[in-house]
Amino acid sequence: MAEIEKLKSNNVVTINGFVNESPKLNHKAYEKDFFTTIVTTKRKNGILDYISLMIPEDICVPKNGQYVKVNGEYRSYNVIYGDGISHLKLYVFVKELEVIPAKYVPYCDINEITLNGYLCKKPVHRFTPLGKEITDVLLAVNYNFHRSSYIPCIAWYENAEFIGNNLDVGDHLKISGRINSRTYKQRETGKDITINEVSIFNYEQ
Fold first, then answer.
1. What is the pTM of this model?
2. Of 111, 130, 159, the domain-final residue
3. Which of 51, 49, 48, 58 is nearest to 36 (CA)?
4. How many CB atoms lie under 10 A from the CB of residue 172?
5. Quick one: pLDDT at residue 59?
6. Same domain, 98 and 133
7. Average pLDDT by consecutive 10-residue portion of the chain (205 residues)?
């Protein structure tokens, strides 16, 4: 029982936001349907983040345009597209979902995540073209005993300096932050591609 509780606390997500599209049937497993949709959460500066949800049928499946509060875990899986390259897909596996009536929609959206895992790649410490100091991290987080999710994270400034210069593959890291999305134009196709990563606010070793 203690091990199960430990796994539950390894990966905790809470978000509020608007459902951005009608949920679609994704797959069926263990005689249960699973649906996918996207929720938008707004930062204090007004920027929107687009976060994918995976919703089991026995959880409340929302409608497009509804405002929801979600609790769950951040997970990953690999998808191979037409280019033959494996791409990491990230989603919140929903454990609780509540539809919030319009009159109770809060002024600020919630977007919080805590991850407890191990570095599975060497951190990449670098500077952006605008001179911001950042470190890219890939964190392996265990769930369901023998399975792991691989979550890309990004640290900034002092956090970036310490993590990038002092940690290595296999080191333990517990982080808290938010799920961010950013869009870039794919060089080969010219398509806009949206990717997600966890922005690290605080960390512990």
1. 0.90
2. 111
3. 51
4. 12
5. 94
6. no
7. 56 97 93 96 94 95 96 89 75 96 92 97 93 95 84 96 96 97 77 88 94
Q: Indicate if 95 and 41 belong to the same structural domain.
A: yes
Q: 71: domain CATH number?
A: 2.40.50.140
pLDDT of residue 2: 45
Q: What is the DSSP string of 157-199?
A: HHHHHHHHHH--TT-EEEEEEEEEEEEEE-TTT--EEEEEEEE
DSSP state of 7: H
32: left (phi over 0), alpha (psi -120 to 50) or beta: beta
| Pair 57, 162: CB distance under 8 Å | no
User: Which residues lie below 8 Å from residue 203, measured CB to CB, with a gap of 6+?
Assistant: 155, 159, 163, 173, 174, 175, 176
Q: β-pairing, 147-156 with 133-143?
A: antiparallel
What pLDDT is recorded for position 146? 77
Instruction: Judge if 91 and 24 occupy the same domain.
Output: yes
H/E stretch holding 89:
strand 86-100
Q: Looking at residue 102, what DSSP letter applies?
A: G
Q: Give the pLDDT of residue 77.
A: 87
Domain boundary, last residue among 50, 78, 111 = 111
